[in-house]
Amino acid sequence: MVNTKDTFEQSFPVFDYDDFLDRIDGDVDLLKEVIEIFLKDTPGLLANLYSGIMSGEAEAVERAAHTLKGAAANISAKRLQHLSHHVQLMLKKDNAAPLESVIGDFEENFKKLDHVLRGYLVK
C-alpha cells in the first residue's frame, strides 16, 4: 500500500499562499473571507467523507471527495486537493477497501491546514 502521508507531505504544500493571493488579484480582505467560509464548511465535508468511507458507500465518498477537492483547489490547499483526488482515483480503480486508512491522513492534513489558515486571519 502507498504511504499517502509521505507522498503528499513531500509533494504538495498544505497551503500555497502566493498561488491563492495571485488567483484573487491580491485582495487580502477576500482572502480572509474565503478562508473563513472554508474553515466553516470543511468540517462538514470531511464528516460526509468519513461517514461514506465507514459505511462503504462509494457514491457518497466520491461526492464528498469531489466537493472537498474543489473547495481545496479554490483556496490553493494543495495537499488536501491532491489527497481528495487520490481517494477518487482509488474509487475508480475499485480499490475502496483501504479507504479507511486515509481518514487519518485527512484529519492530520486538515489540522495543519486549519492552523496555517487561521494564521492569515489574524494578520
Low-confidence stretches: none
Number of domains: 1
CATH uppermost class: Mainly Alpha
Query: Hey, roughly how much beta strand do the residues contain?
Result: under 5%
Helical stretch tally: 6
Query: CATH superfamily, please?
Result: HPT domain
What name does the CATH topology carry? Four Helix Bundle (Hemerythrin (Met), subunit A)
Which class best fits the helix and strand makeup?
mainly alpha
Mean pLDDT: 90
Helical content stands at over 70%
Report the CATH architecture.
Up-down Bundle
Sheet with the most strands, sense and barrel status: none
Principal-axis shape: elongated
Secondary structure: number of strands: 0
The separation of the N and C termini measures 41 Å
Based on CA atoms alone, the radius of gyration comes out at: 14 Å
Helix and strand element order: HHHHHH
What does this structure look like?
The protein has 123 residues and is mainly α. It has one domain (4-121): HPT domain (Four Helix Bundle (Hemerythrin (Met), subunit A)). 76% of the residues lie in helices and 0% in strands. The protein contains six helices and no strands. The longest helix is centred in the middle third of the chain and has 28 residues, at 28-55. The mean pLDDT is 90.
